[in-house]
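Support case: magnesium ion complex. Customer-provided input:
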Amino acid sequence: RAKADGRGTYRFFETGMDARAQARRLLEMDLRAALGRNEFEVHYQPIRDVASDRVVAFEALSRWNHPQRGLISPVAFIPLAEETGLIVQLGEQVLRNACADAATWPEEIGVAVNLSPVQFKNPNLVASVTEALAASGLAAERLELEITESVLLQNSEATLAILHELRAQGVRISLDDFGTGYSSLSYLRSFPFDKIKIDRSFVSELSTREDSMAIVRAVTGLGRSLGIATTAEGVENDAQLELLRREGCTQAQGYLFSAPRPASEVVMMLAKPRLRASA
Ligand code: C2E
Ligand code: MG
Ligand code: MG
Ligand code: MG
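Agent response - structure generated as follows:
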C-alpha cells in the first residue's frame, strides 16, 4: 500500500492505480470474449535461406483484429494472455490455424509457431500439437516450435521432457531471441535445438557496432560447430544481409524481405523474387 505525502497526492495515486487495474480488467474481459469471437488472426513472415535466397518457412505471428481498435500487436496482448492463462487457448488456436494454413502451401515450406513458457505448464501441450498436425494433415517435419530461454528457466526437467516428446513426433525446436536471456550456452547443451534465432537487437546494429558484429559472428560460428542452423531476425537492409551471408548465417528474416502479412498473401510472398542491388 502506497504512502501519501499529502491527501491530494494519495488520492491521485490511488485513482491512477484504479484506472490501470480497471483498464487491465477490461482488456482481460475483452481478450476472453475475443477468443470466443475468433478475433485473432495469424500473420506470416517469410524466412529465407541465405545461400539460395529462397523462402523456406514462414513464422506465424498473432494479431488481434479488434472490432473497434483494429489490429493489435502481440506485444500488447501476449503478456496479459500469459498472466491470465488465456495464452493456452490462444496458443492452441494459433497452432491449429498455422498448421491448417501451412498444409495448403508447397511441401518444402515450413511453418514456425511461438510457444509461451505458460503453455509448458499445460499438461495438454503435446496432445494439442499432435491434434493440430493430425487435423491439418501437415507433416510434423514442417512444423517448427520457437521457444525462448525463459522456457528452460522454469522447471527445466519437465520442460525438457516435453521438448523431447515433441521432437520424437518429428517437430523441430528453435531457440528464439538468442542472446537476450540468461545462461544461453548451457541451454545449448541441455537440449539439441534444431535452430538458433539470433535476436533482432544484435542484427539491427550489425553494421554500426563492432560488438554486435562480434556477437553475431560468435553465434553463427557456434551454430556451425554444433551443427545447428542459425536464423537472423529483423534483417532490414542489404548491408546486414551481406554481413550475415559472409558470416555463414543460414537463414534470414526481416522487413528487408517482408513484414508479417495475412495468410492470403503467402502465395504472393512465395512468388515474389527479391530484387537485390548487389548479388
Ligand atoms: P518473435 O517471435 O521474436 O517474432 C519476431 C518479431 O519481430 C515479430 O514481432 C516481427 O513482426 C518482428 N520483426 C520481424 N522482422 C522485423 C524487422 O525487420 N524489424 C523489426 N523492427 N521487427 C521485425 P511481432 O509480430 O510484434 O511479435 C512480437 C513477439 O510476440 C514475438 O517475437 C513473440 O515473442 C510474440 N508472439 C507473437 N505471436 C505469438 C504467438 O502466437 N504466441 C506466443 N506465445 N508469442 C507470440
Ligand atoms: Mg519467434
Ligand atoms: Mg524472436
Ligand atoms: Mg523477438
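Residues 1-12 have pLDDT under 50 and may be disordered.

Case will auto-close in a few days if no follow-up is received.
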